[in-house]
Design a protein that fits this description.
Chain lengths: ~210, ~210
């Protein structure tokens, strides 16, 4: 069968990727959401100036990730002995033998994957927002960013911090370093960045691109 | 719920599960993002079961071996996932202990059961109620990642609590098995072709008869 379809008209059928239900709906205007009636998967969620917002938030995330990784994150004190750690130290805590694998994956889940996803979306979205031709390899970049989505776990790490703090309060005094506050802001921004993005619109804007 | 829902398969269409672009049935790869197109991925169930089994197998040693090794001035204490939570409970930290129990026991076990239940119900074509299915799916898709909390707690504790002779915490081997179990279960859930679930649902309602 011929794989080439003519350019998609506006009221082309939209299929829910989760349950295969077909809808013929007009593109919702900014701020509205089109949601699958049967399984509630969001289909189209456009926002006004979403592109610019995502870019701004993404830039902030890049700065915060780097800063939060280097600065001291938590400091613990007990009986005159003190220990400060950065997020990177925490991620690399599993240091002996086989646990190194765990160290590297923890670092990836809480630092590198969120950072990489943000960089990839910047690469994809900046030309789109500037009304230029999408950058070379944009589709592959966006594909990777989407595939990594479940593996970005900064927000889970944040809850982990809270639990860990309660666990050691009767053992020692804990104080927060600057990176702790940066990381808190970072979590909020990562979640916001994700919810601003309308995947359908991004794919649509990548359509004109030749491979 | 909603009335009659037509699926893309019934309309002679196949949609891309990655970028949701719609193609005529029989198209082999998505011209927009390059993903292989299948109307229903029957083989997905084999992958689901394979990952599921490895995930369950890793969860067993994760509970038998120590998760944390706490060394204080006079004692060395090894605690398993459940042991650690029970100890917190006796110390009066009810909230944190419940979070740990929820993230490390309730979520993983619930997820094993939910995936198995969904896979079996697709294989046997038995339809559960709409609500059951929706809740099950949400457990699998959104809550599963949160069981990583305990790994992050271990990472933070064992990097932070390094106070020479006073107290030191080391990660135990169970942390590796637990992390692997979470990863494999996430892969299992991601392998699921969710459209199969909704076909059974539709058939039960007399929607999609022969397909
Ligand atoms: Zn749907
Ligand atoms: Zn596609």
């Amino acid at each position: 069968m011929d794989a080439r379809l003519p350019p998609t008209p506006r009221d082309d059928p939209i299929v829910c990727p989760h349950c295969d239900a077909v809808y013929t709906l007009k593109r919702p205007s900014a701020g509205q959401r089109a949601v699958c009636a049967r399984c509630h998967t969001p289909l189209i969620t456009p926002r006004k100036k979403a592109g610019l917002q995502i870019i701004a938030v993404s830039l902030a995330v890049v700065v915060l990730v780097i800063a939060a990784t280097v600065f001291p994150f938590l400091t613990i004190k007990a009986a005159g002995v003190q220990n400060s750690v950065s997020i990177l130290d925490a991620a690399l805590a599993f240091s002996d033998g086989w646990l190194i694998v765990l160290s590297l994956s923890t670092a990836a889940l809480i630092i590198f994957v969120p950072l990489l996803r943000v960089l990839l979306s910047l690469y994809v979205l900046i030309p789109v927002v500037l009304d230029r031709m999408p950058a070379k390899g944009s589709r592959q970049a966006f594909r990777l960013a989407e595939a990594l989505r479940p593996w970005s776990m900064a927000e889970i790490f944040a809850i982990g911090c809270a639990v860990a703090l309660v666990k050691i309060t009767d053992l020692a005094d804990v104080s927060f370093g600057p990176a702790f506050w940066m990381f808190s802001a970072l979590v909020v921004l990562v979640v916001a960045q994700d919810s601003f993005m309308c995947r359908w619109s991004v794919w649509k804007s990548l359509e004109g691109l030749r491979k | 719920m909603s009335g009659y829902v037509k699926t893309a398969r019934e309309m002679g269409l196949v949609s891309c599960t990655r970028c949701t672009k719609v193609w005529p049935a029989g198209t082999e790869t998505c011209g927009r993002c390059g993903k292989k197109l299948v109307s229903r991925d029957r083989k997905s169930l084999q992958r689901v079961w394979a990952w599921w089994l490895v995930g369950v197998m890793c969860y067993i040693p994760a509970n038998l071996y120590p998760m944390l090794v706490t060394r204080t001035l006079f004692t060395t204490e090894q605690s398993t996932i459940i042991g650690g939570a029970v100890e917190l409970l006796t110390h009066g930290a009810v909230g944190v202990s419940l979070i740990i129990l929820f993230a490390s026991v309730a979520i993983p076990v619930g997820k094993f059961i939910a995936i198995a239940y969904l896979a079996i119900s697709v294989q046997r074509r038995s339809a559960a109620s709409y609500e059951t299915r929706q809740i099950t799916y949400e457990v699998v898709e959104y809550i599963g990642r949160w069981s990583m909390i305990d790994i992050f707690v271990v990472a933070i504790l064992s990097s932070l609590v390094q106070l020479n002779t006073i107290a030191a915490i080391q990660p135990g081997i169970a942390s590796l098995f637990f992390a692997l179990s979470v990863v494999f279960t996430m892969l299992s859930a991601q392998s699921f072709d969710t459209r199969l679930i909704w076909d059974v649902q539709g058939a039960a309602k007399g929607e999609a008869g022969n397909g």
